Request: fold
Amino acid sequence: MPSSSRLIDVAGGRASIRVHEAGDGAPLLFLHGAGGLMRDDPFFAALASRYHVYAPMLPGYEDSTGEERLRTMLDITLHQFDVMEALGLSKPLLVGLSMGGMIAAEMAALAPNEIERLCLVAPAGLWLDAKPITDMFALLPQEFPSYLFHDVVKGAALMTPGGDLNDVNFLADFMVMNARRLGTAGKMLFPIPDRGLRERLYRVKARTIVVWGESDRLIPPVYAAEFQKEIAGSRVVMVPKAGHLVGHEQPEAVLRALTELN
Amino acid sequence: MKFTWFHLMPWPHLPEDFREKYRSVWVDIPTTLYDPRRGHGVYHDYLDQLEYAEKVGFDGLGVNEHHANAYGLMPSPNIMAATLARRTSKAALMVLGNSIALYNPPIRVAEEFAMLDVMSGGRLAAGFPVGTSMDTNYAYGQIPALTREKYTEAHELIMKAWREDEPFAFNGRYTQLRYVNCWPKPIQRPRPPIFIPGGGSIETYDFCIENDYTYCYLSYSGYLRAKQLMDGYWERVAKAGKDESPYRGGFAQVICVADTDAEAEKLYASHVHYFYNRCLHVYPGFADAPGYRTIKTLQANMITQLTQAQLRNYPTLTWKDLVDQGYVIAGSPETVHDRMVDLAKSLRVGNIFGLFQVGDMPGDKVRNSTKLFAEKVMPRLKQSMFREWDHDDRFWIKPLPANEQRVAAE
Reply:
C-alpha cells in the first residue's frame, strides 16, 4: 500500500496516536528514535519496500497526545503494547531505532511470549562508565548531524527542518516541537539513558539481531556487544560507513540483516 | 517598600580569558578554577557584607541556591542563613530559595526552614523556586518534563507538614511517607511568607495569585526588559479579582551607587563587566532542557525569548549601554533614586532584591555603594512609594517581639 497516516485512539481514549503506514508484506512495527520520523524518512521508506510498516508516533511527537500520563519506562512500554493492540497486530516483527530500540527491548523483556522477532538498531538502554553515551540534551541543534551520521554533509541535508531557522516565527515553532518531542524522550533518556534494562534482558526469548553503524558517535558501537551478551542467542551486525542512523545511511544493510528474522 | 540586600556569592577569581577558554560558568566548569583556601576568605567577606547590610538598615538579607556554578557559591543557602541567624536580629532572612523538587524527601525543606525560622526568631522568608534548568536538570539530574509535577507535589507536602498538628501519611507520586511529622515547627503561623521566583510562566503567576505568595522576577537584564513580563503578572492578578498590593511582586536589580555618575563608572564598571561577561557566560546547550518549560509557556513566550536572546550579547555592551538599557541602575544617589522610582512604578513591585556586590567587586566598594543607597536612596523611596499599602503585612515576616529575640552571646 502507498504511504498513509491516521490518528487512532489508544487505551480507551487516554492517548491519541498518529500512525504512519506503508508497504506490503509481513507486518512490521517500527518504533522511532528521539528525533521522530524525518520528512520522507529514508529508513521508513526502505522498510516499507519489503514489509507492511506501522510507525506509531509517541505522545509528544507530531500530533500524538497523552504524554502527561506517561512518566516511567513501564508506562511507556505498556503504552506501546496498547498501540499494538489498537492496531490489531499480533507478534509483528518489532524494529526499534535508538530510543525506540530501548522500548522494543523492554517490550520483549516484559512479554517474552508476545515478541518473537526483534531487531534493535543502535538501541539505547545500557550504560558503561568507561564509554559514556553523548549527552544529546546538551547538544545544540547544529551539532546533531556530526553525532548521527557517517557522512555528515549528506546527513545534515537529510535533517533540514523544512523551513528557515533564521526566520524567528519558524524557529519558534521548531523549538516548541523540539521541546515536546525531547520532553517525552527525557522520560526515558534523561539524564542517563538507563532505566534498568540490563537486569531484565535475560527474559527476552525473541530471535534478536542488533544492528550498529561502525561510525556511531552518539552511542558507541561497543554497546552492541553488551546487548549481545545479555540477550541469549542474539546476533550483532556491524555496518560500515554508517553512523547512529544506520538505517538512513545504509538501508540495504539493515534490510539484509532483517531477512535473518523471516 | 522592602529592600533585600541580595548576595549571589560569585567566585571573584575567574581568569581574564574565561570566555574564550571555557564554554560555561555553570554545569561543567572545572573545579581547578576554584581554590578552597581563597574560598575560605571569600565566604567570610561575603557573610560580613550581608551582616553589614543589616547594620545600615536593609529589611532583608538574601541568599539563594545554585549548583555547579561559579557565580553562585551557595549549593546550600540554608547554611548561610543559619550563620546569619546567629549574627543578625532584625532583618528578614530571605532564602530565595530551596529548589524543592531536588530534595528527597522534600520534608527536609520543611524541617530546615522551620529550624531557620525558630533560630532567627521568626525572620525566615521562604523561597520555593522550581530552579533553573542548569541546576535542576543538568546538575541535579531531574527529568525535565516531570520537574514541575514533582515541584507541585513537594510544595503540597511541605505546606501540609507545617499546617498539621498530628502526624499524617502522604501518598504522593514522587514521595511516599507513612509518618510525616515536622519537628520543629516554624514560629510564623501558619507559615513564613513565601516568595516564588518565576520567569514568565502563566502557571507560576496563577500559583502565586491563588496562594498569596510573592511573585519575584530575578533577572539580570534590568527593569526595562521586565516590564512586559510583570505586566502579564498584574493582568492575571486583576483577572483573579485580587487586590493590587505591590508586595505581591518583587524584582532583582543590579545597583551601584557612588557620589557622582562619573564616579560610579570609575569605581564599578570593571566589576559589572566581570559579572556580565564572565559570570553570565552560560553554554546555550544548558540553558533550557527540553520539557523543562511547559508547552503553554513556550508558545506564549518563545518569540520574545528568541528575540531577547539575540539582543543579549553581553561582551558588546559598554557601561553606557548597560546603564542606559537598565541592566544596571548606577550613578549618584539622585540618579539612582530617580531610576528606582521609575522601576517601582513601572513594574509595581514593593520588594527590591538589590545586587550590590557585583562580580569581583571588593568589600570596600560594596560597602560604599551599600551605605550610600541605605542613607541617601532607601529612606526617600520608603517615604514616597506605595504608602497606601504600608498597613499590608501579609507578605512579610512576623518576628518575635524584640525583647524575645536571642542572638549569639558576645
Residues 49 and 205 of chain B are 33 Å apart (CA to CA). The longest helix of chain B spans residues 363-384. Chain B touches chain A at residues 27, 137-138, 141, 143-146, 173, 283-286, 289-291, 293, 295, 298-299, 302-303, 306-307 (CB under 8 Å). Chain B has a mean pLDDT of 95.
